[in-house]
Amino acid sequence: MGEKSFSVHKNDGAVSFQFFFNISTDDQEGLYSLYFHKCLGNKMWSNDKFSFSLDIEITEKNPDSYLSAGEIPLPKLYISMAFFFFLSGTVWIHILRKRRNEVFKIHWLMAALPFTKSLSLVFHAIDYHYISSQGFPIEGWAVVYYITHLLKGALLFITIALIGTGWAFIKHILSDKDKKIFMIVIPLQVLANVAYIIIESTEEGTTEYSLWKDSLFLIDLLCCGAILFPVVWSIRHLQEASATDGKAAINLAKLKLFRHYYVLIVCYIYFTRIIAFLLKFAVPFQWKWLYQLLDEMATLVFFVLTGYKFRPASDNPYLQLSQEEDDLEMESV
After folding, report:
1. Labelling 240: which of 34, 94, 141, 157 has CA 20 to 30 A away?
2. What residues contact 38, with CB distance under 8 A and at least 6 apart?
3. Is pLDDT of 332 > 50?
């Protein structure tokens, strides 16, 4: 595409101009960036510094939406995934009501997670709908989405860490080592969500955007690494217990369950933080929404598999172990 010149208007020392750019052919489709270049005058050197103020008004619009080509499907995608998360939560509630005698407190905490996720996606879809139709978000809906997103993120990591420690299944009191993990994970997760909110509400070219974007990646990795420690500690504890006490068969079954859960968490982190992220840069700009689709699908599969592994059932190694310990306590009394 050749160079274009635009007329400049001067008024009281201020310079203004405007231009229109229309994408009319397929070969012109793509991602465009707007850069500001420092033009050197006759009495200026390249290393000279000077101050200036700049007011910019930009209107970008596709034929039927103010969203970019890679974001147009997002409102429908988010509302569809919200339905699937709500459906999975409803099925989980039905299972808990059906097996009331085998339900622990952690099961109800797990039930809150898909509904919180579904609510977050609904508000996200509404936020994108207004951006698509009006070109700007409605502040109220955006704030509600950020709140539910923060709750969902904190609840997800707390639930994963509690399952990893075996809370309510094996022990009803967290150890000091487990409490330290929560003292690390919860503030980090809150900080990660704050970074996400700042990134969502900040222009990409600003200094704050790049700073918080790098911080979010680092904080998120620290959170993901921290929640693996309780699972590793539980695996080591079960390995030692299976070789010393008289419940080796149950401990080995539970050890196998924990190993599967460890692999499941690692795969979820690897896919959502690395594979899907790399795909975001590998696909054409029209298919950028595939990153969000794969991320939400991976989260849904992770929820379903976690629920299946730790479902309230008589053949669950967790429940068998808890019942035997309760019987021993009753005999000692």
Report:
1. 157
2. none
3. no
